[in-house]
What we know:
This protein is α+β, with helices and mostly antiparallel strands. It has one domain: Hedgehog/Intein (Hint) domain (Endonuclease - Pi-scei, Chain A, domain 1, Beta Complex), CATH 2.170.16.10. The chain is built from 6 helices and 11 strands. The protein is globular.
Amino acid sequence: MANLFIILALLAFTLPTTVNCYLKGHRSADIPIESKERNPEKKLGANNPWKDICFPAEGTMATPNGRKRMDELQLGDKVLDRNSEWTSVIAFLHKAAGRYVFVEVRVGEETLVRLSPQHLIFRLSSPRGDVEDVPAHKIKIGDTVQLKNGTGRVSDVRSVMADGIYAPLTTSGSMVVDDVWASCFPGHYLNGLVKHAFVQNYVMAPLRGLVNVVNMLGYDKLSQFMFGSGDEETGILWYGRLLMSLSSMF
């Protein structure tokens, strides 16, 4: 019941503005991302967690029809999650052009994933096989991380530059990127006290509910407008900007 009230409140506050912009012909999601000049650092604090949840354009995800690059993903695409199940891409929390710093994690000889320093990745925390979610910048050589098929030992960690910045949000809150388990969320919200499960179950619940309502009504273009991309300056989805404003209060 509480979630229902939150969803209705979000609808009341966001739908009028969104529909008004949409009817005026402002279709931000229809503009090729390469044509947008964005500077995410201009308005965002260096320590704001909600800008640091991304992968480069070259990152790949498994779909029922083969691998797709991050810059090829669309709303509604099915991708593999950490439970080896297909989950839907329901929004893009961040999508922008440009070059950015990523943590490059190499596992063994062949597996390599690049992700933002604060993006959560899953690491074994005990010999019993317990798994913890930690920011990518805390991964060290010798750590064991979760892979699509089992686990692997980290053989190298370094900072690299790469093109594009993409943060797909899935229904399950997780995904397999370049064969490595990853969360859809950042890892330093409230100084790391808030973990993956809390963000998935509570912080993102209103957004998932809103996505379900819009999709249930069959407004595909409105769904693309509301959830397919962020604003033209930062590339961050409106819900992410709302969370950033709330997190700045703590």
